[in-house]
Design brief:
six-stranded mixed β-barrel, 432 residues, alpha+beta, 57% helix, elongated
Amino acid sequence: MSAVSDALTVPRPRTAAQEGLATRGMGLGQSVATALEALAANKLRSILTMLGIIIGVGAVIIMIALGRGASDNVAQRLQRLGTNLLNISPADHRGFGNVSAGAGSGVSLSEADAKAIGDNIVGLDGVSPSVDINVQAVSATSNWATRAQGVYPSYQTIENWQVQAGSLLSNADEQRGATSAVIGQGVLDNLFGNGNTGSGNAAGAVGQTIRLNKVPFQIEGVLVAKSDNEDNVILLPFSTSKRLVNKTNVDDIVVQVADAKQMDAVQTQITDLLRQRHRITSAQNDFRVRNLNSIVQTAQGVTQTLTLLLSGVAAVSLLVGGIGIMNIMLVSVTERTREIGIRSALGARGRDIMSQFLIEAVALSAAGGIIGIVLGIGGAIAVAKFASWSTVIAPESVIVAFVFAAAVGIFFGYYPARKASLLDPIEALRYE
C-alpha cells in the first residue's frame, strides 16, 4: 500500500502544534508569512505577474499628471488675460450678394457706446473701448511692423497687464492726449535687441522715443510678457490714438464684471442697452457679446475630459494585470493541490486556505502598486523635464491608483482563493 494510503488509513498522533492548528486555525500573521514564502519561491513568476499592475498604476499617475498640468496651464494662461470679461465687437458686414466679410467687419460700435455701458450698467469693474492700428514702429536702430491699441487706462487693469519697468498709462495721459506708449516684450526685443539697451533690457528702453507711423512717442513702460501674440503690442491713450486713425468707430469694447455669478445678467443688460441705442427692432444684432468666462470653462472642460479619457485607457492595463493575477493564482492552486490537501489534513480550515491565497493576490497587487507609484511619479517628472510638458502630480491620484490596484488584487484573487478553500482534502492528497 502506498504512503498516501497509509496516511489515509492509519491515524497518527498529532503534535501539540498540530492540535493547536486544528482548534484555532492559522493566524493572520502565519497566513501572511506563508503567502510571502510562496511568492518568494517563484520570484520570476511573481515579478511577471506584477508587471500589469506596475504598468497600469504608473500609466494612470502619468496620464493624470499630464492632464492636470495641461488644465492648470490653460487656466494660468487665461488668468493672465483677465477674468470675468465680456468682449463686445461689431457683427460681420455683409456686402454685395449678402456675402459676409467676417466677424468684426462691421462699424457699429462707438466710444459713446462704451461710455453708456459704464454709466448705465451696474456691477462693473471697468469698461474700455479699443482701437486697433497697424503701425510701423521705428527706433534709433531698428523698425518693426506691429499693432498698436488705443485704450482707456482701465483697459490695462481689465486685461491684467503689468509692467516690468516704467509705468502704465495714466488718466492724465488720456485726458491730455499724451504721446506716451507702453510696449510689449515682443516690441522691446525687436526694436531694441541690437541697440544700446540690449535684448530684453526693459529699464533701458523706458524714456526712449519711437516713431509710430512717423509720429514720435515716448516709451512710458514695458509690459510683462504673456504670449507671443499679445507681446507684439503697443498701448496708447485712446484720445491720442484717434489722431492716428481717421475713423469714429471702435473695434471692440471690453467689459469686466465684478461678480462672476452676474456675467449672464450683465451680458443681457448690455445687449438690451445696445439694441436700444442702435435702434434695432429685428432679431439680428449689429454687434456680438462674447462671455470669455464660458470660453475658460469650455477649455478646462476639454482638458478634464481628456484627462479622464487618458486615465481610463491607462486603467485598462490595471484590469489586464488583474486578469493576469487571477490566471497565475488559478495555476498556483492547481500546482499546489497536494500542498493544500496536506495543510487541510494538518488542521487548516477552509478560510485559512482562502486567506492564504487571497493574501498572495493582494500582496502581488500592492507590491505592483507601490512600484508603479514610484515609476509613475518618476515618469511624470521625466516628462516635465525632457519633453517640457507641464505636469502636476496630485496626491489623490496616487492614493486612488494604489487603492484601485489593491482592489484589483482582492477582486481577481477571490475566485482562485475560494476555489482552493473548497478542495476536498482526500482528493487533494491523492492528486499527483
